Amino acid sequence: MASDDDRLRIMHGGPFYELMTRLGMRKRGWRAFVFAGLCWTIPVLLLLATRGGHGAGLFLHDWGAWAKFLIAPVLLTLAEKPIGFALDECVSMLFRIPLVSSQSMPDARKALRDAGARTAAGFPELVCLGLALAATIFNASTFLGGSAPPWAVGDGSISMTGFWCLAVGNTVYWFLLIRLVWKHVIWCLFLSSVARCHLRLVVTHPDGHGGLGFLSYYPAGYGLFTLAVSSVFAAGVGHVMQRQTVTPGFFAAVCVAWLIVVIIYYCVPLLGAALQVLSLKRKAVLHSLTKVTDFERSSERAILGENALPDEAEPEARELHDVKPIYLASMKTSALLINKGNVLPVLVPALLPMLVVGASYLPYSQLGPIVKRLLLL
User: Fold this and answer.
1) Which of 33-37, 121-125, 239-243 shows the lowest mean pLDDT across its residues?
2) What average pLDDT does the segment 63-77 reach?
3) SS (H, E, C) the chain
């Protein structure tokens, strides 16, 4: 069993974590409920009180309001536990197998301590809050520029509901999102440091990635995070499709572009590990290829009495081993840690909100072929 020292515990520590603990909102389910009430329930009640059922109906029919003020805050909060679990499992396996060699273990431990220090640091979260406030100010400027939704304005100015959604809902959404992105950066920096260590990789490992294949499953812990961000993105696409006609080809291109962005987001932390696997593959191919050639020529001489293409400077006879399995395994070793075999947990939550929006504006006869093409990517 892994000890606490083998865990990153990336969601623990920091001003936000301490504040939630002091407020009695450490449990993520209760915290998600509170954020949903602040960001979504209160605006609905304000609209009912000031504009009646018509105003509340406008809010409830807004894709963006549902995505940014209810779905995203709840999912981003609930996503902390599976993300933390997935990353801790990867870290514990790195040290428990162990994949880090003995001479590099002090460097790997230091990388883990540095990651823990970044997790508990206060300044980065203050930056996250500053960026969230900046995003709110930017959204406020667009609201004042005439781009506010109907439920957020009244008598030509921003209503109390609109102000509440900007000051509270929008800021909460952006803070939760940017904070989790910062946690992702911490994970990326940790894996980059580990990738610079000497690792105990082997090309004959059954995972096909030299022994690092388990790292490719960490994005599965980000399923709720991906679904939350994709919901907000899909809501924006839905607003565009509501105002103007979007061709099926353009919609498919937007879906593909979004999937590429999501995959890149999860591939970046694995870049250092992929380079390690690529270096392992190159060295194993070169070393095994020499020994395979010597062994096969020796076998040919033993059977035929001579080589079909003799060499005057043939190496002296020595004990040779058949390393063909190592050569074949090295040729099959892949540096693509995220591939068609494990990309489904990434693609499904990224694509699902887009398909829901597409189904609302495109007939099935046009949406069906798009889904088939996306699944065949």
Assistant:
1) 239-243
2) 94
3) CCCHHHCCCCCCCCHHHHHHHHCCCCCHHHHHHHHHHHHHHHHHHHHHHHCHHHHHHHHHCCHHHHHHHHHHHHHHHHCHHHHHHHHHHHHHHHHHCCCECHHHHHHHHHHHHHHHHHHHCCHHHHHHHHHHHHHHHHHHHHHHHHHCCHHHEECCEECHHHHHHHHHHHHHHHHHHHHHHHHHHHHHHHHHHHHCCCECCCCCCCCCCCCCHHHHHHHHHHHHHHHHHHHHHHHHHHHHHHHCCCCHHHHHHHHHHHHHHHHHHHHHHHHHHHHHHHHHHHHHHHHHHHHHHHHHHHHHHHHHCCCCCCCCCCCCCCCCCCCHHHHHHHHHCCCCCCCCCCCHHHHHHHHHHHHHHHHHHCCHHHHHHHHHHHHCC
